[in-house]
Amino acid sequence: MIKHRQVQRRGRRSQMTTSFTDPAVSMDLLRAVLQPSINEDIRSVFNKYLKFFQKAAINVRDNVGEEVDPEQLIQETCRSCLEQAKLLFSDGKKVVPRLPHEQTVPKRARQIDEELNRRGSPIPKKRKGRPPGQSLLNERGVSSVAAWKIKVSEPVRRDGPKWDPSRLTETTTFVLGSRANKALGMGGTRGRLYIKHPHLFKYAADPQDKHWLAEQQHMRATGGKMAYLLLEEDIRDLAASDDYRDSVDLRLEELKPFVPPAWMTEKMQKHMETLRRGADAPPPESPPEP
């Protein structure tokens, strides 16, 4: 007669044997062991091209404004690279999902990505007379970077009723740009709203304005950090448009509108009038002197 304890031991041995002979489990165990080394190799590859991402991100910030966070843009770009790299190991059935910001990438840039992935050679061969990585920047990266430059350098129309300073009254409500960004479902990336909708009126708060905003607990006392004010009406108009009304990420409760003091509204009226008169001139990216 076999004792109960012996049966239990045999059962455990059987389970262990099954686990270690499962192909998926065996391969995943190997992957777990090698993963730290793989991560280091991946990091080395990204470090090689990081300087290109940094230059492009800084260029975007210089053109759009200090609200853009270059580090956030770089991280999103790196994540996008990893998503696209999955296509190298695709079985042809699964579709690699695109990150939200990739939906707006120009068609030509997407075609280049798809063509390179079909060839199975995402990194072109080096050419004589070029520094390492230069061919990659020229042949692949230039399309995306050029697209950013073209978009931000196009003349922005500042006319019509939305650019009439008389619409700014002592009862007009405003919202912080960071809150508007979240309310429209654009995540925590600062500046994405201004890149996508450059026609919006935005006012860079100066130290006096930021002091009042902090006192009223509309924002934290952040020192030199930029803070933009936008009209609540403009943001709600955007939210009601076809681009946003059906978005599951819409969070209008994040707006937290407020009425600024008369002296601040007067400064915003003057700023709007200045921008309207010089429609081809970009809005100031640094706060005015107090």
Describe this structure as you would to a colleague.
With 290 residues, the chain is mainly α. It has two domains: 4-153, no CATH class; 161-277, no CATH class. Helix content is 53%, strand content 3%. It has ten helices and three strands, in the order H-H-H-H-H-E-H-H-E-H-E-H-H. It has helices at 4-21, 23-64, 70-85, 107-119, 134-153, 177-183, 192-196, 207-215, 232-239, 262-277, and strands at 174-176, 202-204, 228-231. A three-stranded antiparallel beta sheet has the order 1-3-2. Helix 2 packs antiparallel against helix 3 (70-85). The longest helix has 42 residues, at 23-64. It is elongated.
Using the alpha-carbon principal axes, give the shape. Answer: elongated
Strand percentage: under 5%
Q: Largest sheet, order of strands side by side?
A: 1-3-2
Q: Radius of gyration from the CA trace?
A: 26 Å
Helix content: 40-55%
Mean pLDDT: 73
How far apart lie the N and C ends? 94 Å
Q: What's the total number of strands?
A: 3
* Overall tally of structural domains: 2
Report the order of strands and helices: HHHHHEHHEHEHH
Low-confidence stretches: 14-18, 99-105, 121-128, 130-153, 279-290
Structural class, from secondary structure content?
mainly alpha
Q: Major β-sheet, in short?
A: 3 strands, antiparallel
Question: How many H/I helices?
Answer: 10
